[in-house]
TrEMBL record:
The keyword Transit peptide does not apply. It comes from Streptomyces hirsutus. PANTHER family: P450, PUTATIVE (EUROFUNG)-RELATED (PTHR46696:SF6). Belongs to the cytochrome P450 family. The keyword Transcription regulation does not apply. Keywords: Heme, Iron, Metal-binding, Monooxygenase, Oxidoreductase. InterPro entries: Cyt_P450, Cyt_P450_B, Cyt_P450_CS, Cyt_P450_sf. This is Cytochrome P450. Coiled coil: none annotated.
Length: 405
């Protein structure tokens, strides 16, 4: 017995050493780190909740729910400027790369445009877009959810809402580019997206902007007592596309995957109550935005670790959302209790501006899908891989199903 315990202890120590070592080099883009990520963050939360990694240029990884909250709520100490997790190669994106007061001025302008009420006029188009996409694969009895459904659906609707006063031709071009960005977010595509936003702004200004959409508010609006600069206008358009695309697409793919893993879930989602009752639990478990970054504006202690002015922190929403100090059975979907306070849409001043839109898109995507298909299952050749990076997103979700009726 004693020998076994000693052996177990030694194995535990070796495992811990291995995890500590791996955490100290954690690299967002490593497939190997991605594979063991939940084990790593579980270890981090237990043993070194603010761990330093030399990966991706050096970060303190903040893994516990309460620490994540503290960082997100203290924007004066943990700034969003000069802190991108992944360099985009494009100029600053307003409001995500700004702090108050510019960030709050931008939010004042954007929030009303993404309220449930403001989005209601797009609801019918969302249903129609989803239906059209399903038409294209329903007879086949199979689909790859991310690229045949979620990507084009989210891309089409997002561009329609953001660029709502464009001509059909311009909108088509924007949608094609959005789809390309959703399929592979390379620096080249980011660059093209910014060129596109700049050109659209220019053309829209020349033509005269009508209505009360995003463009109208950006061009006619003010941040406090000054006009909004061209760079801020372009950054704002760009982050709305980037912020809304991969995230909602990933969320739809993740939920579809969970449906294939738990047969009872499909019926749960046929009940419209799932939207208020269960959607957040899916978002908590597979937080589509895995992490964001902040930079310390002064020397600060976080959970016993001194972070010096200018050092960056990687705030892990996904790890916070699996913190058992906050959520019981955090690695499982738990529907039998009211869970609240997940971090999937962020916290504090930068909390997602598009959360209403995301929820609406997810709701309609599954309402339309489950009207037409049943017994959703993974295709035998499905290759389920979580892609490393800033998102919790699957590479592909190949499903098979039976037709309803
Ligand atoms: C399931 C889908 C989505 C998830 C999980 C998500 C998640 C997040 C998170 C975690 C943040 C906080 C970033 C930070 O603190 O640095 C954020 C901010 C943001 N999101 Fe979303 N988002 C989603 C959908 C959308 C959509 C549809 C849009 C566009 C309409 C959008 C636009 C933005 C913008 C512009 C910000 C920056 C807000 C600010 O800096 O004040 N997001 N989102």
């Amino acid at each position: 017995m004693t020998t076994t315990h000693q052996g177990d202890n030694q194995q535990d120590l070796a495992d811990e050493k291995h995890l500590a070592e791996r955490l100290s080099h954690f690299d967002l883009f490593s497939w190997e780190d991605q594979r063991v990520k939940w084990e790593l963050f579980d270890y981090a939360r237990g043993r070194c909740p603010v761990a330093h990694t030399d990966g991706n240029g050096g970060f303190y990884i903040v893994s516990r729910y309460e620490d994540v909250r503290r960082v997100m709520e203290d924007w004066e100490t943990f700034s969003s400027t000069e802190s991108p997790l992944v360099p985009t190669g494009v100029p600053s994106l307003c409001p995500i790369d700004d702090d108050p007061p510019i960030q709050s001025a931008a939010r004042q302008l954007l929030n009303p445009l993404f309220s449930r009420k403001a989005l209601a006029p797009y609801e019918e188009a969302m249903h129609q877009t989803a239906e059209d996409l399903i038409d294209a694969f329903v007879d086949r009895g199979s689909a790859e959810i991310l690229n045949e459904y979620a990507g084009p659906y989210v891309g089409r609707m997002l561009t329609k809402v953001i660029f709502n006063d464009l001509t059909d031709e311009e909108l088509n071009a924007a949608q094609e580019l959005a789809l390309a960005v959703a399929e592979g977010a390379t620096p080249e595509l980011f660059g093209q997206l910014f060129v596109m936003c700049t050109e659209y702004l220019e053309r829209a200004k020349k033509r005269g902007i009508t209505g009360d959409g995003v463009l109208a508010r950006l061009v006619g609006g003010r941040f406090g007592d000054r006009p909004i600069t061209q760079e801020e206008q372009v950054g704002c358009l760009g982050i709305l596309v980037l912020g809304g695309l991969d995230t909602t697409r990933a969320a739809i793919g993740n939920i579809a995957y969970r449906l294939t893993q738990h047969p009872g879930l499909e019926d749960r989602l046929r009940n419209p109550a799932w939207v208020r009752r269960d959607m957040d639990e899916f978002l908590r478990l597979d937080s589509p935005v895995a992490a964001m970054a902040r930079v310390a504006t002064r020397d600060v202690e976080l959970n016993g670790v001194l972070i010096r002015k200018g050092e960056r922190v990687q705030v892990r929403f996904d790890s916070a959302n699996r913190d058992t100090a906050k959520f019981r059975d955090a690695d499982q979907l738990v529907f039998d209790e009211a869970r609240s306070g997940h971090a999937a849409f962020g916290m504090g001043v930068h909390r997602c501006v598009g959360s209403n839109m995301a929820r609406m898109q997810i709701e309609i995507a599954f309402e339309e899908l489950l009207k037409r298909v049943k017994n959703v299952r993974l295709a035998p050749a499905a290759d389920i891989k979580w892609v490393p990076g800033q998102s919790n997103a699957l590479h592909t979700v190949d499903i098979e199903f039976d037709r309803v009726g």
